Amino acid sequence: MNVFKKGWYTEISDDWPGVAQSYEIEKEIAHEKSKFQDIQIFKSKRCGMTMSIDGAIQSTEMDEFAYHEMMAHIVLYSHPNPKRVLIIGGGDMGVAREVLKHKCIELVDNCDIDDKVTELSKKHFPHLTDIPLKDPRYHIMFQDGAKFMESKVNYYDIIITDSTDPTGPAVSIFNKSYYEKVFKALRPGGIICSQGESYWLDLDIVLNLRNIMKEVGFPVVEYSTIQIPTYPFGSIGCIIGSNAGSCKKPRRAMTKEEADSMKYYSKEMHEASFVMPQFFKKRFESEE
After folding, report:
1. Quick one: pLDDT band at residue 276, thresholds 50, 70, 90?
2. Can you tell me the distance from the alpha carbon of 67 to that of 164, in angstroms, rounded to the nearest whole number?
3. Model confidence pLDDT, tens digit, residues 225-240
4. Could you tell me the end-to-end alpha-carbon distance of the chain, in angstroms, rounded to an integer?
5. What residues are labeled active site?
6. Which domains does the chain have, with CATH numbers?
């Protein structure tokens, strides 16, 4: 649930009871309901253009780069020579923008179930969409991502799941069946990165994703923290399943052009993001 009242947008959710975040707004830009989701776009005085889906903020002009850079570059720099990338979700194209910075990439497929997110992003978030739309390596399609992967066995080097929280259409990509398809779609040495929720809010979900990734066959499962102020409690994470060993240190160096394009990601940030607070480390690394 969210509330517009006296010039403020307040984000309230049963997923984080007892806590709410508020943003002073300049104006509401758009409010549309697709077949799958309720999408709101408004301009915040502090955060700029903002997208909310089903009452939860997904992207703001102020800090979107933190999430999109880390979701893309942690796994891309952990792979020695990635060629083919699949993005499930991510219809705003922010992750795609980052993936396409890598000249070694030959193909980026982006599969999102909701074309309305992309339609609104093209109109109101051109800083996310302009680069992918001009790059011939990029292909976006609007269909169920799990079904799409069934025909792509042993095909991708990297699969990135850029989803909303596990509600609405995203529920189906937080289960074992989905990750079995992901595992089969990866080439030998392939790596998956999924939106991994926050250990402050969703520890049970994080641990469940860890267990699922191990059960389907990933020998290495790790968690990388992303600091992003407009998400509840100021952080989220990416959970990584790897067939290529640990992703805690990059395997490729950034070019100067790549490094100059970054606002958040760096080699140092890559490595530091895997350091966990003790309460979480004990749970994540246990066999529970």
Report:
1. very high
2. 13
3. 999 999 989 999 999 9
4. 33
5. 162
6. 2-60 (2.30.140.10), 64-284 (3.40.50.150)
